[in-house]
Write a structure and sequence with these properties.
By secondary structure, this protein is α/β, with parallel strands linked by helices. Helix content is about 35%, strand content about 30%. It is built from 7 helices and 15 strands. This is Response regulator transcription factor.
Length: about 240
């Protein structure tokens, strides 16, 4: 979420230009900040990758039936931010198909400024309430037994062929698996890959110098291609 007292950063995804323009203007008039607008899923993903976004408003049928729902699942998996579906249809079938992606609300076209404001307020309140109660863990398997790790406690992960070393607040843990498998479990908004053998939690990076990141006192190498990734991460923070 944006810092205290700063405007809420909102992504708007809508493929009808007039509706997109109307919605963006209304958000600006209410004091929100449009972090980006998009008319396709690809454009929306680009905005999410480079901008800090607090909430997204997604047209359910953007450039294809239920494409917005596909984007909703993507946001849940990689960013964990609240989103509201925008739709001209309030029929049970449409709502039912959207429910599995766990949206934080719906905005039915045509909409009024008051309805926009109300849907955003409800979504943010629901998100903040769930964030207080939901523990942010991932589950990993070690020698046939599952254990859980708090995501925010992970500093970085290093790969060694068919094993990975997970470095956390509680120390190191070596488990059988691949870096790709770990990467798929962690939010891409926070974790990035500066080198083919390392996955780093951006929250624990203290410096970058001479081709190395300092991550909670440890030196993590940055490859030539990883340098661009590091710069993109730093530009978002």
């Amino acid at each position: 979420m944006s810092q205290l007292n700063s405007p809420l950063q909102i992504l708007v995804v809508e493929d009808e230009f007039v509706t997109l323009d109307t919605l963006c203007d209304a958000l600006n008039d209410m004091g929100y900040e449009v972090a980006g607008d998009a008319m396709t899923i690809e454009e929306a993903k680009e905005v999410l990758a480079r901008q800090e976004v607090d909430l997204a408003i997604l047209d359910i049928n953007v450039r294809g039936k239920n494409k917005g729902i596909e984007l909703g699942h993507y946001i849940n998996k990689h960013f964990g931010i609240p989103f509201v579906y925008l739709t001209a249809y309030s029929d049970p079938a449409t709502i039912a198909s959207a429910t599995d992606s766990a949206p934080y609300g719906y905005l039915i076209k045509p909409f009024s400024p008051a309805e926009i404001h109300a849907s955003i307020k409800v979504a943010i309140n629901r998100y903040q309430a769930s964030a207080k109660t939901k523990e942010n863990y991932i589950y990993l398997k070690d020698q046939g037994t599952f254990f859980r790790l708090r995501v925010e406690d992970i500093h970085y992960v290093e790969a060694f062929r068919n094993y990975v070393e997970v470095n956390t607040n509680e120390g190191k843990r070596v488990i059988r698996g691949t870096l790709k498998e770990i990467t798929e479990k962690l939010p891409s908004r926070t974790f990035f890959q500066p080198h083919r053998s390392f996955l780093v939690n951006a929250e624990w990076v203290s410096s970058y110098k001479g081709g190395f990141l300092t991550v909670r006192g440890a030196s993590v190498p940055v490859s030539r291609s990883g340098h661009k990734v590091v710069m993109q991460v730093f530009s978002r923070r």
